[in-house]
Amino acid sequence: MTKQVYLPDDIPAVGKNILTDAGLEVIVGSGRERQTMKNEGAQASAVLIGTQPFDGDMMDSMPNLKVIARNGVGYDAVDVDAATKRGIYVVNTPKALSGSVAETAVSELLAISKNLYQNATAIHEDNWHYRKAHPGRDIAGKTVGILGFGRIGQQVAKKLSGFDVKIIAYDPFAKSTDNVDIVGRETIFKTADYVMVHLPAIPETIHSIGAKEFKMMKHDAYLINMARGAIIVESELVSALKNEDIGGAALDVFEEEPLPVTNPLVGLDNVLLTPHIASNTVETKARMAIDATRDIVRVLQGEKPEAAVNQLN
Predict the structure, then answer these.
(1) CA angle, corner 180, sides to 99 and 94, nearest 5?
(2) Quick one: 244 exposed, middle or buried, by C-beta within 10 A (0-12, 13-18, 19+)?
(3) Catalytic residue (one of 228, 287, 294, 298)
(4) Across the beta sheet with 4-7, what order do the strands follow?
């Protein structure tokens, strides 16, 4: 019987071709709704998911499952322990999106520095003179603090290297480089003009940035989060923004996604909100599809995957 690979969301053709060329049957689903996934993936030997939750109950609805591939880096939505207990590999695509996420992070830093969104909106509202009361600021001479100096954090530093900024980073596993000083965590919040979050969502980092950290920050400093919404205590960020404890924020990720229009963040003038687009490029989607499907093929052919999150006996 031909093994099935279930795709709740469609992926670029290059990825599907890798699967079909390996003799696998590709099932393109109709969305991420929980029961829909259970029904459509019931016979699947592999599944390729995005950020939707995937727990033991979901795994049990797919008794043939051998590998859960995550189309991205973070795998906090997958119950890895449950997968390991069931003999299921969890894989991700850590090499595919670092450059793209870093580009988006730097873009958002520039956007909040120059008030790009607000100024663009003002033109559509026939308010050419908005700019007079809302000048931007240069980033040259400023300090950028990077929380998490892994692949993405390092790419951010590389892309910022030509902007004449001082770059500092916090990461217990990293060492200083020619243009980046590794410093203590509190130093990031106390001295950076821009605090950029590139941390994994793990128990140690969930809700690790809140009122205490915002009080450390400069009143005109900005927080930029491209990692996971759960790392920030969102209600305390809202308070810090409303009270102007910090200058503003640029957020691409949220505790609840899609972000409800009723969320208090939506009504704030000093925040830039984007809908989890950091890796949403044509090129990155293709790279993720290639890396994820190649590991699916490896597992279903009895080989070890290259980007395994867990280890099986």
Answers:
(1) 30
(2) exposed
(3) 228
(4) 25-28, 4-7, 44-49, 67-70, 89-91
pLDDT per position as a tens digit, 169-212: 999 999 999 999 999 999 999 999 999 999 999 999 999 999 99
Bridge partners of 6, per DSSP, are 27, 47
Please indicate whether residue 70 is annotated as part of the active site.
no
Q: With beta carbons less than 8 A apart as the criterion, state whether 113 and 272 touch.
A: no
Backbone angles phi, psi at 133, to 5 degrees: -95, 0
pLDDT tens, 57-86? 999 999 999 999 999 999 999 999 999 999
Q: Which of 33, 244, 256, 257 is catalytic?
A: 257
Cα–Cα separations (whole angstroms), residue 173 to 148, 165, 169, 311: 9, 23, 11, 22
AA letter at 282: V
Which of the residues 276, 287, 294, 298 is marked catalytic?
276
What average pLDDT does this structure show over 21-48? Answer: 98
Q: Is residue 44 packed enough to be buried (19+ CB in 10 Å), middle (13-18) or exposed (0-12)?
A: buried
Is 228 one of the catalytic residues? yes
Phi, psi of 45 (to 5 degrees): -95, -15
> Which residue(s) pair with 27 in the sheet?
6
Judge whether 179 and 164 are in contact, CB under 8 Å.
no
Q: With the C-alpha atoms ordered 240, 227, 99, 273, is the resulting torsion angle positive or negative?
A: negative
Give the CA distances from residue 102 to residues 50, 139, 285, in Å, rounded to whole numbers and listed in that order: 19, 17, 15
Strand partners of residue 54: 78
**Helix and strand element counts for the chain (H, E):** 12, 12
Q: Is 86 a catalytic residue?
A: no
Q: Is the C-alpha dihedral spanning 46, 52, 55, 60 positive or negative?
A: negative
What is the distance between the alpha carbons of residues 261 and 5, in angstroms, rounded to a whole number?
Answer: 35
Dmax (CA) for the chain in angstroms is 69
